[in-house]
Amino acid sequence: MFSHRAWGKTYPAVLLVSLLCVVRSPTIADAQISATQPANDAPSAHLSFVRVFSSADDVRRTHPIFDRTLDIIAGPADPVTHVDALQSPSAIATDSNHRVFVADPGAHTVHAFDFVQSKYDHLDPHGDRLQNPISLSVDAQDNLYVVDQGSRTVLVYDAAGKFRHPLGKLRGGESYFDSPAAIAIDQRTGRIYVSDRLRHMIFIMDARGKLVRKLGNRGGGDRPGEFRFPGQIVTAGSELFVLDSGNARIQVLDTAGHFLRAISLGDTDPHSGLAVDNRGNVYVSDPYLNQIQVYGHAGQMLYRLDLGKFPSEIKGTNFSHPSALWIDAGDCLYVVDSQTNRVGVFQIKRDQDKPPQ
After folding, report:
1. Is residue 245 helix, strand or coil?
2. CA–CA separation, 240 and 237 (whole Å)
3. HEC readout, 211-277
4. Using the 8-state DSSP alphabet, how is residue 306 labeled?
5. Secondary structure E strands in 82-123
6. Sequence spans of domains, the chain
7. Element (H, E) at 198
8. How confident is the model over 108-127, as pLDDT tens digits?
9. Which residues, 6+ apart, have CB-to-CB distance to 216 below 8 Å?
10. C-alpha–C-alpha distance, residues 51 and 347, integer Å
11. What is the mean pLDDT of the chain?
């Protein structure tokens, strides 16, 4: 259970950066944007590597003199297997108190890392609710919404980690989701968006969880506002971004669900991540090419970040399968590596939206 009293302080974004990042209804023809593919760009020109983390040990402050004294008196500690470690991370999000939440279906929990106060905790320690948590998001009150694929529902927890209620559960224990894949919340209105891969649809609910609208058709489609195996979704300003995996595109809609435009992608993967920064640039990860592709708000390709090109002397930058992405208000980019079971943190440089020369 999270300790809201201990973690309740709010810190300005500048402090967070210093602590963590330095520790008409258009047709598809006239709205589809074909992104040109420039040469790979060195990631260090656009991102500053900050750190990686993978377990509770990474959030706790170390005391080298004290630890060294213990080693002398009692000898080095025996190696142990940490249970508070990422096992198969699938999604990441942050809240206004700068806590970092990581959904981990392998560990049947959601990890909570607080780097400001050097604390670690996790949801559902007794394992009685979370079966297969695969996605998450946070509302304006720091309530945490967790997509649990095992129960096919969205589980809602308050800011202190106390379970409140499920979303999507019908009478008799059934759910109106078939295969919920991702969730996004419009913090201005409280509206909740859930993608359902097998139903090829996006569900829109109000802040109380009442169904407002369904987007898409059963069986899928490739017209504007139709989807095939939709994956990650993100809200940014008045827009909703949907990774339409089966159609190899990102569809951009307004938050009421009306189609605005599409960004054509060369290829997509079910595990690709999606994020949007505060300038409207769109980030898509490619786990197999070990890349992050960055598009401008209008859909033009800006550059590709090859994570294998970070300087080898920077410890911890040997990423292999970047999947889930998240960008916070301080321009910190969080990248989940699904193969090495860890998260990388990068600071986005402010000139990053300029195309390479």
Report:
1. helix
2. 8
3. EEEEEECCCCCCCCCCCCCEEEEEEECCEEEEEEHHHCEEEEEECCCCEEEEEECCCCCCCCCEEEC
4. E
5. 91-94, 99-104, 109-114, 119-122
6. 4-348
7. none
8. 999 999 999 999 999 977 76
9. 199, 200, 201, 202, 225, 226, 227, 230
10. 10
11. 82
Average pLDDT for residues 317-330, to the nearest whole number?
88
Measured CA to CA in angstroms, residue 290 lies from 37, 68, 287 at distances of 16, 38, 5
138 pLDDT band, cuts 50/70/90, is very high
List Cβ neighbours of 27 (8 Å cut-off, separation of 6 or more): 224
Query: Is residue 52 predicted with pLDDT exceeding 60?
Result: yes
Per-residue pLDDT band for 320 (boundaries 50, 70, 90) equals: confident
**Range of lowest pLDDT (116-125, 206-215, 302-311, 348-357):** 348-357
Between CA 192 and CA 139 the distance in angstroms is 9
- Contact indicator for 242, 202 with CB cutoff of 8 Å: yes
* Amino acid, single-letter form, for residue 140: A
Distance (Å, whole) CA 252 – CA 237: 12
Structure-model confidence comparison of residues 312 and 346, the more confident one: 346
For the chain, counts of helices (H) and of strands (E)? 4, 25
Question: How remote is the C-alpha of 141 from its chain's centroid?
Answer: 18
Query: CA Rg, the chain, in Å?
Result: 20
> 353, 343, 352: which is closest to 50 by C-alpha?
343
Instruction: Give residue 67's pLDDT.
Output: 42
For domain 4-348, the CATH superfamily is TolB, C-terminal domain (2.120.10.30)
Residue with tokens 């970047």: 322
108 near 133, Cβ under 8 Å? yes
Mean pLDDT of 163-185: 86
Structural tokens at position 313: 């002397």
* Burial (Cβ within 10 Å: 0-12, 13-18, ≥19) of residue 252: buried
pLDDT band at 59 (very low <50, low <70, confident <90, very high): confident
Residues in the chain: 357
